[in-house]
Amino acid sequence: MSYIKKKLLSGNEAVALGALHAGCALGVGYPGTPSTEILENFSLLGGKAEWAPNEKVAAEVALGAAFGEANSLVTMKHVGFNVAQDLFFTASYSGVQGAMVAIIADDPGMASSQNEQDTRSLAYAGGLPVLEPSDSQEAYDFTRLAFKLSRKWNIPFIIRTTTRVAHSNTIVSYDESSIEALHPAKFEKDVQSRVMVPGHAKPAHKRLRAKHADMLKWNESDESPNKIIDGKSDELGIIASGVAYYHALEASPDAGFFKVSFSNPLPVSKIVEFSKKYKRCVVIEEGDPYMNSQLLSAGANVEVRNEVWRFGEFNSDRAKAQINNDLSYAPPVQKVKPPQLCKGCPHVFSFKPLVDLGCIVAGDIGCYTLAAMKPISGMDMQICMGASIGMGIGLRKVLPEEQARKVVSVIGDSTFMHSGLTGLLEMVYNPPSTGHIVVVVDNSTTAMTGQQEHPGTGRKLDHSPAPHTVSIEAVAKAIGVQNVVVFNPVRDGEKIKSFLEEKLATNELSVVILKQPCLLAAANLAKMKGK
Predict the structure, then answer these.
(1) Of 141, 232, 395, 505, which sits 20 to 30 A from 498 (CA to CA)?
(2) By three-state DSSP, how is residue 513 classified?
(3) Rounded to the nearest 5 degrees, what angle is found at the Cα of 56, between the Cα atoms of 48 and 16?
(4) What is the rounded CA–CA span in Å between residue 112 and residue 163?
């Protein structure tokens, strides 16, 4: 006998449950706030989940599974979508034979990110369909729907969440009788669909656009998850998507609403008709004026969105201000403690020799990025994952020799696995005339997102032993780095300083690994071993 169950879940937990109930055979991703908990929960629920070295590899694994007619899930944050673009922009051409769903978690307001890009704009450019849940119930429902629609149109589907949807808890209802079993996996040869040489890609592009036309027709039908709510008068209509819908609903409950859930391809014609019913129409959306621009181009009765509403995370006060054209609105300033490395973090010591020697430090993404802040002030630049090595090499090649010899690249162990290997290859292949030094701050975990595993920890996502542990030291030696040394940053401060001082004066290539586990990760591991 079937019955409806209810659970209080975050958006990320709801996605994990939805994937499990959709018969997802494999979940792959790279940890990144606000998406990290999806795969962790999928694994806890009994799903097969893996951390990949980076987002592109994760997407490749997921695509391979979907080529085998299985259901696959890939998770990442918005900047991780950049890393995987090469795969996605052609996978929309090749299509899939099973189902592939990508959860891309945007971070409006940059709570833990270096930019606040909008996944919808990139998905539009890549021809990838997008669903936007507004709460945990829709996160569950749309995940299941995305698998269904991915199979219907044989194309990867994107689910765009944002910070508030990913981390807020709402009630999720589901029917246990509707849970789907795993789809049988098999491979059938289809070279024309999967080998994207120009002769195959040209007709594939036409097939993609035909799919879009069919998706658009469906999205403008009554089957679509979009919702139209009539207003109490014809004064105000609001077009909204994602969590911005609830903020706008709270700000103006009497307005008419077109709630956009399937945002690419956008049901423009249907929204244009909706806009004609109201004297004023406002588009409320987090991030880019993605919907606003398309609707204005189509002649919809919508107001031009002021640029001020592009920046930051939405809330009901901000939605109300936009509706009232109040450009003076500013979110209340909250006094917060500046972010700092954890008390007792061993890698506070890693930066002291660099600061003492007056190094120009090209830094990278990770909790050690906080060393750029006072009181350490030990980092001069940080852009994206893995960029530290390339930026350091570039500086070395153009600066006057006296300054060039001060340049050092600093990267974490997880970031090194993610995208530091290619930078190291560049250093060996095109070495600066003054040599170069790469310092790997190795805390044996992916610390900033919650102590997740990576290929160098010797453990898998579920903390079970991995068959091999990748050694940064061995990799650097195998690539051809002349000097590879390992120090303990807590105990070996003077040795590290002496080694750096010596090598900065030579034209040699060096990798210095400062290895000491994260205290939080070590404590968590000890708890797991004690169970």
Answers:
(1) 395
(2) strand
(3) 35
(4) 10
φ, ψ dihedrals at 378, nearest 5°: -115, 20
Query: Quick one: which of 225, 82, 241, 211 has its CA closest to 143?
Result: 225
What secondary structure letter does DSSP report for 465? B
User: pTM of the prediction?
Assistant: 0.91
Structure tokens given for 81: 């979508």
**Following DSSP, what letter does each residue of 267-311 receive, concatenated?**
-HHHHHHHHTTSSEEEEE-SSS-HHHHHHHHTT-S-PPPPGGGGS
CB 23 within 8 A of CB 181: yes
Q: How far is CA 92 from CA 62, 159, 185, 208, 280, in A?
A: 14, 15, 21, 7, 37
Instruction: Count Cβ atoms below 10 Å from residue 209 Cβ, excluding itself.
Output: 10
At 21, is the secondary structure helix, strand, or coil?
Answer: helix
By the 10 Å C-beta count (0-12 exposed, 13-18 middle, 19+ buried), 338 is classed as exposed
454 neighbors 440 (Cβ within 8 angstroms): no
Rg of the chain, C-alpha, whole Å: 25
| Residues in the chain, pLDDT under 50 | 1
Could you give the C-alpha distances from 275 to 161, 226, 267, in angstroms and in order?
A: 26, 15, 12
Residue type for 171, please? I
